[in-house]
Design a protein that fits this description.
Blueprint lengths: L1 H4 L5 H22 L1 H5 L8 H25 L11 E3 L4 H8 L13 H8 L2 E5 L7 E4 H5 L4 H8 L3 H25 L1 H23 L11 H8 L3 H10 L5 E13 L2 H12 L4 H8 L10 E6 L6 H8 L9 E2 L10 E13 L5 H30 L13
Antiparallel strand pairs: 1-2, 2-3, 4-5, 4-7, 6-7
Helix pairs in contact: 2-10, 2-16, 4-9, 4-10, 5-6, 9-10, 11-16, 12-16
Protein name: peptidylprolyl isomerase
EC number: 5.2.1.8
Catalytic activity: [protein]-peptidylproline (omega=180) = [protein]-peptidylproline (omega=0)
């Protein structure tokens, strides 16, 4: 798996990652439990379903070409010749999902409905090296997320059959792999994938890994423990991250329609004086002053014109912008010019500073805790690594 991602990877680095994942995953399961760890993974899928799907997908990716060669030896040159779809009546589906069109507050099945679903066979199959079996509606139901359950409750028969076929294909992949590598080897790979997923979930809970923007109760708890003194100290060290526009001195030209606005914009692009055109064309009350707005401060909740000014680069004339209004309302157009910008800093006591500081400090604390935990786990663990000859080293 490692070499599929990076052909130059070394065996030692792979073993280090496997060992770290094994230890970290076991610690994560003890501390948080599987439900918390799986909450940020494939949304809506049960943890075991996610791991099983990843196992089949990994094996198919690594050995798919060899599996295809074996499939071509079958009478129909594929799995289709081994599949036998079964008819399921509308009345039978009613016993599982209820009558069509009924108002539902959720899409979960109770134990009686699941038991009935387990009795409804969607597909029978015969794997090429033995292992005849069937896929029931219950098998399909248990492997769905919310979107899948919506399709099932909508009685989408094609969807049901496709999902049954997917499960047969996955069973073939596992059957082929067990015959090729042994049952223990496939079980070990599944455990590796479970370890990897739980270790990544542990990283996410600590604000690290592949999704640092995901919610984390651990980070929320650590952030709530950050003191005002810590926020002030962090702000002092990161003050340059909170530069903002404090005020701007600007002019504008308000035009009655888009055609006039485009005409004035073209004149400005050709070098015409902004104040002169404002006096000549603007319909705003400040037209006589050359459209001067004076100093506009960044405070409170700026109106839309102020927001346009704060977004405009100093010394550059903006394109014409339509004032906010309904799609068919007669709305004026604005052209603005920021003559000067004065920069400042957000106040240390502002909510935005407090939030940014507490989250950053929480991540630092979480990362330090995770680093210490990994070091402690490695220090306490007994690790035996098999040599090429098969003995421990």
């Amino acid at each position: 798996m490692a070499r599929a991602a990076d052909p130059a990877v070394q065996r030692g680095a792979t073993l280090d990652a496997l060992i770290a994942n094994r230890l970290l995953a076991e610690a994560a399961r003890k501390r948080f439990g599987e439900e918390v760890l799986s909450a940020g993974q494939r949304v809506g899928f049960a943890r075991d379903v996610s791991i099983d799907d990843q196992l089949a997908s990994t094996l198919r990716t690594l050995y798919g070409s060899e599996m295809e060669q074996d499939l071509r030896q079958l009478p129909g040159a594929g799995l289709d010749s081994l599949l036998h779809p079964q008819a399921v009546s509308d009345a039978a589906l009613d016993t599982v999902f209820g009558k069509p069109g009924a108002l539902r507050l959720d899409l979960d099945l109770d134990s009686a409905q699941l038991a009935q679903a387990d009795r409804l066979v969607l597909l029978r199959f015969a794997l090429p090296h033995g292992g005849d079996g069937s896929i029931t509606l219950g098998d399909v139901v248990r492997r769905q997320n919310v979107q899948g359950r919506v399709a099932l409750f909508a009685r989408e028969r094609d969807f049901m059959l496709r999902q049954a076929r997917v499960q047969v294909a996955a069973r073939y992949v596992l059957d082929w792999s067990r015959r090729r590598f042994g049952t223990d080897a496939v079980a070990d790979l599944r455990r590796v994938l479970a370890d990897q997923g739980d270790a990544q979930a542990m990283l996410r809970l600590h604000g690290m890994g592949d999704d640092q923007h995901a919610g984390s109760r651990l980070l929320d708890q650590l952030a709530s423990q950050v003191s005002p003194a810590q926020v002030r100290d962090w702000y002092r060290r990161h003050r340059d991250d909170f530069v903002r526009i404090e005020r701007v001195r600007a002019r504008h030209i308000r035009l009655p329609d888009e055609a006039t606005a485009q005409k004035v914009a073209a004149a400005l692009a050709a070098g015409a004086d902004f104040a002169t055109l404002a006096r000549r064309h603007s319909v705003a009350q400040d037209a006589a002053a050359g459209g001067a707005l004076g100093w506009v401060r960044h405070q409170g909740r700026p109106d839309w014109l102020a927001q346009l000014l704060f977004a405009q680069a100093e010394g550059q004339v903006s394109s014409p912008v339509r004032s906010p209004a309904g799609p068919y309302a007669q709305a004026p157009w604005e052209i603005v010019l920021v003559e000067q910008r004065v920069l400042g800093y957000q106040e240390a006591g502002s909510e935005s500073v407090r939030y940014a500081a507490s989250r950053a400090l929480a991540r630092e604390t979480a990362a330090a805790q995770l680093t210490a935990l990994r070091a402690e786990l490695l220090r306490k663990a007994r690790i035996d690594i098999a040599t090429a000859a098969g003995g421990p080293a």
